[in-house]
Design goal:
The complex is a heterodimer of chains A (about 70) and B (about 240). Chain A is mostly helical. Chain A contains four helices and no strands. Chain A has one domain. Chain B contains eight helices and no strands. The chains are: A mainly alpha (about 70), B mainly alpha (about 240). Bound molecules: zinc ion.
């Protein structure tokens, strides 16, 4: 192992693979909370909401609170 | 730092900071969401789309309790997502950030990211409580919001890189450049097409609470990732400083 190589490792300090993994986590998580458009906007749909749109409903309040466009 | 350890501390700090964000929202934002949804219910009764009867309120209560439970869970999901972005930027910029230890460095970066990818986009497209948004325009509003975040974030990055090339007495020009750039973008980008029909004081108070919630996330994620980094970074432990 050369010194040059060690230096370059300590400069970036993390691998490209790790960055790619985190980039995917970022995109997926952001979409689920911020932009999935399946959410229903009122209680008039009743129980069906709990069956069909669980994730959207679950993230709905955070979507408003964190500033994402919603209803 | 090993990849697996790096990913782990980024995910854990994002999750913890997201849980704090969700908990803060649960306490301070939910009352405003309830008020706004209350207005929606009144509108439903007025238009005859729903009946103001005990069954409606029973369903409504059950629905809201369940929906509120999502604040903390969604906070953790969003926290992992934003925390991942934060971890990436931190790993790449750590050597250039000011500060003696990782907590200071991480909090500085969290502050920069809070301003560029949250606060400035928020000033252009502020958060709205339920009832304000028109379902017809939600795709357009999402595109505008994401575009503005990207413009601000990548703009900040570009001007930062530019300032690194400048001589030390001219580095402030990078900041000036970003300011001019973002003001131009602010003016050029179209307005949110939706008209706010809800009472303005409700909307404003909601927005303030929303900002406090998101701010709690950025402060937390900076401190937590910084603490983890201090603890687990090989370079730190070999020097034996805290
Ligand atoms: Zn909504």
């Amino acid at each position: 192992m050369s010194k040059v190589q060690q230096l370059s490792v300590s400069k970036t300090s993390v691998s490209k693979v790790a960055i790619l993994v985190l980039a995917i986590v970022f995109a997926a998580g952001l979409f689920v909370v911020g932009f999935d458009q399946g959410h229903i906007f009122s209680v008039v749909y009743g129980e069906q909401a709990f069956v069909d749109l669980t994730i959207h409903e679950l993230t709905h309040d955070m979507r408003h609170a964190a500033g994402f466009p919603c209803h | 730092m090993k990849s697996a350890l790096f990913i782990l501390i980024v995910i854990v700090s994002g999750t913890l900071a997201g849980a704090i964000h969700g908990t803060v929202n649960f306490a301070i934002v939910e009352p405003y969401l309830d008020q706004a949804i209350g207005i929606e219910n009144e509108n439903l009764f007025a238009s005859g789309e729903a009946d103001d009867n005990p069954q409606f309120w029973a369903d409504y209560e059950e629905y809201r309790v369940w929906q509120k439970s999502g604040q903390v869970i969604a906070g953790m999901i969003l926290g992992v997502a934003m925390g991942s972005l934060f971890g990436i930027v931190y790993a790449l910029s750590r050597n250039s950030l000011p500060g003696k230890n990782d907590v200071t460095k991480a909090v500085v970066l969290a502050g920069i990211m809070w301003i560029t990818i949250y606060l400035i986009p928020f000033l252009k497209y502020p958060a709205n409580p339920p009832t304000v948004g028109d379902a017809e325009t939600v795709v357009l509003r999402s595109i505008l919001y994401v575009s503005f975040i990207a413009i601000s974030g990548f703009g900040a990055l570009a001007f930062y890189k530019l300032s690194k090339k400048l001589q030390s007495d001219k580095k402030y020009l990078g900041l000036v450049g970003y300011a001019v750039f973002i003001i131009a973008a602010f003016i050029v980008m179209p307005e949110n097409p939706d008209e706010v029909t809800a009472p303005m004081n409700l909307v404003n108070e909601f927005r303030l609470m929303s900002v406090l919630g998101v701010t709690s996330f950025w402060i937390s994620v900076g401190i937590i990732l910084g603490l983890f980094w201090n603890k687990f970074d090989d370079a730190n432990s070999s020097k034996n400083d805290s």
